[in-house]
Amino acid sequence: QVQLVESGGGLVQAGGSLRLACAASGLTFSSLDMGWFRQAPGKEREFVSAIRRSGVITRYADSVKGRFTISRDNAKNTVYLRMNSLKPEDTAVYFCAAGASTSYYSGLYDYWGRGTQVTVSS
């Protein structure tokens, strides 16, 4: 059974940092590309970042470029999202996803976690 379990969310003040982690099981992690998406109340789910299976190629939404860093540890079956200089508009539920692409389009990802809440206070 495939499982993606996010952790590391919480409440942080604007300008602060958090590191999200997504632990995968039940799949061949090193053969899959991984992505992070987020969804704020009343808004559609949006792409945040993605990383190729090798870890060499990464992609970021313009809104987080320069502030967020995605990485992965294939030995630990885990993908991370380091979030610095957080803003209130980063408040959302953050989801990790696994698939065969680093696409911005959520429909191309096959597996999803349940999400972790990130709240940034002003």
Query: Biggest sheet, in brief?
Result: 7 strands, mixed
Total of helices: 0
**Count of DSSP E strands?**
11
Poorly predicted runs are none
Report the end-to-end length measured between terminal Cα atoms: 40 Å
Please bin the fraction of helical residues: under 10%
Residue share in β-strands: over 45%
- What's the Cα radius of gyration? 13 Å
> Mean pLDDT, as a whole number?
97
Please state the structural category: mainly beta
Descriptive notes:
The structure is a single chain. With 122 residues, the protein is an all-beta fold. Helix content is 0%, strand content 52%. The chain has no helices and eleven strands. The strands form two sheets. Strands 2, 4, 5, 6, 9, 10 and 11 form a seven-stranded mixed sheet that branches. Strands 1-3-8-7 form a four-stranded antiparallel sheet, with no helix packed on it. A hairpin with a 6-residue loop joins strand 5 (46-51) and strand 6. It is globular and about 40 Å long. The chain starts with a strand and ends with a strand. The model has no long low-confidence stretch (mean pLDDT 97).
